Amino acid sequence: MKMHIAMELFDNKRFVAHLDLDTFFVSVERLKNSQFIGKPLIVGGMSDRAVVSACSYETRKFGVHSAMPMKLALRLCPHAIVVRGDMDSYSYYSRVVTDVVRDTVPVMEKASVDEFYVDLTGVDRFFGCSQFMMELKDKIRKESGLPISYALASNKLISKVATDDAKPDGRKEVEHGLERSYLAPLKIQRMPGIGEKTSMLLMQMGVRTIKILSEIPVPMMQNLLGKNGIELSRKANGIDPSPIVPYSEQKSIGTEETFQQDTIDVQFLHSELVRMTERLTFQLRKQERLTGCVTVKLRYSNFDTVSKQMVIPYTASDAVLLKRVKELFMKLYDRRMLVRLIGVRFSHLVQGSQQINLFEDTEEAVKLYQAMDAMRARFGDEAIKRAISVNKVQGKAASPHF
């Protein structure tokens, strides 16, 4: 009986690893140019009005961090080398590492362009998870040339938090049963889900470590932060049952417009493409996702339907995606016939913020996009738009697909 219970407990154990490519943009730049190795390096725009997209560990000790105005970063670290970001290279290496991980592990979740979760439950019985992860780390380094850190634990929460302790280019394991004691001494800012406002509120209450957070009664946390309070209480005790979501590049969002009256008005079609693309890019940013593939669909009045797609560097930028959508449309629309339907779809979606495009924007541009998104979130997707998308309305029936 005791043996049966022990085996059942063993069977219920999960083994989850979180992998994070160390200072990803910086590492890619150093791979391209070995002279940057060991030097204080900033990836971002080249003007004083630009913002920092990524920075090396050598600059962080001076207080430099991502999303900081470039002018301030260079004031803090005047000897830093500034390199303009290369979206094509970052997307390429992200896909290289994705392929290595996907071909090696049983189940993988791509959390962002440079982060992965893998579920190794069951692997422990045959190979040993520790040995498996060390070999995977070496394989990634060999095939991509990039350093990567990882942590192995019983769930996604612990593995993600522990990966920060493994950096740079290291590894860490948190044994089953030690989740709560591992988290206890850490500052509350280390806990995923605790933002600046929540952190300030908790610190005003004297809550500075996860240990203290874990000891607050659940009803009090619920009164303080609602449902999020219950979730944080659970996480503070090291509990996270969330599953690994298998990675699939088929995930997509898109929309189509079927016109009540077929049209040959190219200006109108362009304005519709702009409107549709803006709506979808807002949805991407709202969901904190990036797309790596754009598809445009066109149906002529004789019901012939054609489509073209383009694999692109990961992005959620209006400017970048509008350009790609227009390029694809001009390649498709070659018959000069009446058009019945047009559609836009973004696929190859991954979790991620707009950080990957920060080197394209000035600080003012970033704030402008944030303000526009805030207005859309409050008043609706169509609350603010480009002038070109405000065109003479022709009869159409909308058919959104998400």
Description of the structure:
With 402 residues, this protein is α+β, with helices and mostly antiparallel strands. The chain folds into three domains: 16-172, 3-Layer(aba) Sandwich (MutS, DNA mismatch repair protein, domain I), CATH 3.40.1170; 177-237, DNA polymerase, domain 1 (Orthogonal Bundle), CATH 1.10.150.20; 252-389, 2-Layer Sandwich (Dna Ligase, domain 1), CATH 3.30.1490. Helix content is 41%, strand content 22%. It is built from 15 helices and 14 strands. It has helices at 2-11, 24-32, 57-60, 70-76, 87-104, 129-144, 156-166, 179-183, 196-204, 210-215, 218-225, 227-236, 266-286, 318-332, 363-379; strands at 16-21, 41-44, 52-55, 81-83, 107-112, 115-119, 148-153, 171-173, 252-263, 289-300, 305-315, 339-347, 350-351, 396-401. Strands 9, 10, 11, 12, 13 and 14 form a six-stranded antiparallel beta sheet that branches. The N and C termini lie far apart (51 Å). The model is unreliable at 1-10 and 392-402 (pLDDT under 50). Belongs to the DNA polymerase type-Y family. It catalyses: DNA(n) + a 2'-deoxyribonucleoside 5'-triphosphate = DNA(n+1) + diphosphate. It is an enzyme of class 2 (transferase).
Main attributes of the structure:
EC 2.7.7.7; 402 residues; DNA polymerase, domain 1; 6-stranded antiparallel beta sheet; alpha+beta; disordered C terminus; DNA repair; Dna Ligase, domain 1; single chain; mutator protein; MutS, DNA mismatch repair protein, domain I; magnesium ion binding; 5-stranded mixed beta sheet; globular; disordered N terminus
